[in-house]
């Protein structure tokens, strides 16, 4: 990633709608949005690290001090991930299905904590839309979309590893070659004494890829089913659209006439992210991808993913309801953690798995915290804190500055400045610090050319919304954006 292309955006402003989490009858869900025509992967990484998320080319951020159900960005450091008992049982279920053809639900019962770990991500899930249609794309972008100015090395992104017992392949990247032990003497042939093993030593923890490999290509059974998982650039395919349609009708109860190929393409194929070809061998590059799951040659699930400089970000999942007994929501999340683990071997900075938003006020949406140890983004400081650290404040106030000590919370409780009030104060302070000169000097695209925002015909009309965006993004990030007016 040697050169950063500018990102082209248009402000779409505040959006209010009914809430899919608390099922309010009024428009109590409040976000602020913008439309991204083209965006560098680095810029989008910085945006999600400030609480943004995308639905197609529409980017939005919850107004946390006002919205009914605060949505907090959640991530997992995959190098520290440990499978819970409930998650391991989902992997075991897949293993039994692949090796023995057992398709029924497991008789193993989970306690409440384990059950939360394996909730399927369907409650309140929605495809967000902007409050108003954005301006038409600049002609140069409409005719030839931008792509990163990085040389295409032509490297293969994914290597298939066939099983010896069945035609099974996975999306795992080729493992790095093992390095010889340091300080190894080639002259000495004497065997070194090994330290005695302690009695009843616990077995070493298995990494997530080992667990998944054993499920998808077990070596102790002949296989009854073949599973294949591939990673491809996001493109429209009839097979994937048909799966999306079946999923939306069955799981989300969408009306069939509302599910057109155009809608599917708009939300789950179109992406503002400019693809950056791989600079490191055997990696897929940065951009938007579809991770596809096939069982016996039939497409049963597709995960829409953004691969970014520091993370794999989950955008959406669709699966065949006929295979719901395999807990594909949980299994695909584990598979995406496995993909991140594989990338980390060659791209050490890419070690996080972003799961979208965590909604503490919705009991059924707390399952994401079951992928431990997860962190939440503090909406006031943009620092990361553990879920355990944030929970007491979320229980009492729903939202607030999470990255603070218990002593600070006590002091702020005494002054009454705690919870959502803190976020209102921070935003007000940010708005008051922005001058007309700051807004005037922003870059804008108007009438086929780039100029200062203050020179565009819409300056007076649009500057209050742009000022709000400025306050949300901060000066370093908004200075890298070009406003389409």
Automatic annotation (TrEMBL):
A matching Pfam family: ATE_N
Record key words, sorted: Acyltransferase, Transferase, Ubl conjugation pathway
Annotated N-end rule aminoacyl transferase C-terminal domain residues: 239-378
Feature: compositional bias, Basic residues: 188-200
Record-level Gene Ontology MF annotations: arginyl-tRNA--protein transferase activity
Xref: InterPro entries: Acyl_CoA_acyltransferase (IPR016181), Arg-tRNA-P_Trfase_1_euk (IPR017137), N-end_Aminoacyl_Trfase (IPR030700), N-end_Aminoacyl_Trfase_C (IPR007472), N-end_Aminoacyl_Trfase_N (IPR007471)
Biased amino acid composition, Basic and acidic residues: 99-109, 123-135
Domain N-end aminoacyl transferase N-terminal residue range list: 17-89
GO cellular component: cytoplasm
Top enzyme category: transferase
Region annotated Disordered, chain positions: 99-207
Reaction(s) catalysed (UniProt annotation): an N-terminal L-alpha-aminoacyl-[protein] + L-arginyl-tRNA(Arg) = an N-terminal L-arginyl-L-aminoacyl-[protein] + tRNA(Arg) + H(+)
The enzyme's E.C. designation: 2.3.2.8
Acidic residues: compositionally biased ranges: 110-122
Family statement: Belongs to the R-transferase family.
Protein's job: Involved in the post-translational conjugation of arginine to the N-terminal aspartate or glutamate of a protein. This arginylation is required for degradation of the protein via the ubiquitin pathway.
Entry protein name: Arginyl-tRNA--protein transferase 1
Species for this entry: Spizellomyces punctatus (strain DAOM BR117)
